Amino acid sequence: MPNTERADGRKADQLRPVSFEANFAPHATGSVLVRFGSTQVICAATIEPGVPTWMKQQGVKGGWLTAEYSMLPYSTHERKARDINKGRLDGRTVEIQRLIGRSLRAMIDLDKLGQNTLWLDCDVLQADGGTRTASITGAYLAARLAVQKLIDAGDLRESPLTDSVAAVSVGLFGGVGLLDLAYVEDKDAQVDFNVVMTGQGRFVEVQGTGEESTFSHEQLNELLAMAQKGLKELSALQAAFLARHLLAK
Question: Which end of the chain is less congested by CB atoms within 10 angstroms, N or C?
Fold first, then answer.
């Protein structure tokens, strides 16, 4: 592992400082403010009765989970116009909220959710790279808090969540593999990956591309190994957060 020191002083295989703040949005069923370095995302979970019309029409049993993602206008250096003012969601927004939804549906038993919809809203307060990975990591915690609230109230008999899930970015910057890229690295990375993994160490999704570049099989393995290391650390941080906020009750 190269002992490369980055612009923010981290080692190549080191995560940014990660923190979770519970109940940031009090009107949501469960919520977390997640920080990956300077990136900050509010992740809120709301459980509502009922399921989408298409499920009823097709006779699909159980509940549903879906996600929405947005970047607040002041989250970037230059003001980002709201999608509603453009009359449509941009392609990046659609891609990211579908990724969040897929990632969370990979670790939930929708039958146990009952005839309910679990909404996950991820709103970026400040963007400095890795907003989608921070959203997934925080959305799981918001969902876990929301589910526990319903269990405590007697509205759910057992948790529909079958595992935890987290996500992290890796990439090649200046020919060196880096974990958890900040924006200054992400914007000029030759290769960029987003990796989603469960707490049990199973991959949910691997998104990787050469940004006007290519990568070797050996570099692919190096990046995946680096991502797995970071994801194990994120999973441990998630578990410690839940131990403080749920098991200590």
Answer: C
In angstroms, rounded to a whole number, what is the distance separating the alpha carbons of residues 99 and 117?
Answer: 17
Look at residue 56 in the predicted model and tell me its pLDDT.
85
Measured CA to CA, the distance from residue 233 to residue 228 in angstroms comes to 9
Secondary structure letter of residue 218 according to DSSP:
H
Q: CATH second-level architecture of 18-247?
A: 2-Layer Sandwich (3.30)
d(CA 127, CA 129): 6
Residue 2: C-alpha distances to residues 6, 12, 13, 17, 98 (Å): 11, 7, 9, 20, 35
Rounded to whole angstroms, the Cα distance separating 138 from 35 reads 9
Q: Are 219 and 170 within 8 A, CB to CB? A: no
pLDDT tens sequence across 39-91: 999 999 999 998 888 888 888 888 999 999 998 877 877 777 767 666 667 78
Alpha carbons 159 and 149: distance in angstroms, whole number? 10
Alpha helices in the chain, H assignment, sequence order:
53-58, 83-86, 91-105, 131-152, 183-186, 217-242
- Percentage above 70 pLDDT, the chain: 95
* Residues contacting residue 172 through CB under 8 Å, at least 6 positions apart: 178, 189, 190, 191, 213, 215, 219, 223
